[in-house]
Design a protein that fits this description.
Helices cover about 35% and strands about 20% of the residues. By secondary structure, the chain is an alpha+beta fold. The chain is globular.
Length: about 130
């Protein structure tokens, strides 16, 4: 997978598979935003800027973390965009990692890795 085009095509196929699976994923009412309280989320600059435009006050609560020689922003737990009603106040512009939870795609120097974090609260709609 040395060719950038091949990597992008593979990422697109994996991304499509993730969204196909997510079409069957339902968060039950008794969840109470489990993932928003348990999972820190790294943000791209674009995601950070969108959230900052929505609420500078909440965005200022984000952590800045250092990976190797670069800095990134991170939604800490509980997410500052989680409302008192346990709903996401940034739902329409939420980060990709929030949108695709319980999946997490990571690109390493040599491959694309997809991690699946089991959700303790979710259930598949085919079992409902």
């Amino acid at each position: 997978m040395d060719d950038v085009k091949e990597v992008k095509q593979e990422m697109q196929r994996v991304n499509e598979a993730i969204f196909d699976i997510l079409n069957y994923y339902i968060c039950p009412p008794e969840c109470h935003a489990f993932c928003c309280k348990q999972c820190a989320v790294d943000l791209s600059d674009k995601e950070y800027n969108k959230l900052r435009r929505l609420s500078r006050e909440k965005a200022d609560k984000l952590k800045t973390v250092k990976y190797n020689r670069t800095y990134s922003h991170q939604l800490d737990t509980p997410c500052p965009f989680l409302g008192h009603d346990e709903l996401c106040t940034a739902y329409d512009i939420r980060p990709v990692k929030c949108h695709t939870y319980p999946f997490n795609m990571t690109v390493t120097s040599s491959s694309l890795v997809m991690l699946i974090y089991p959700c303790m609260m979710g259930r598949c709609s085919s079992y409902i």
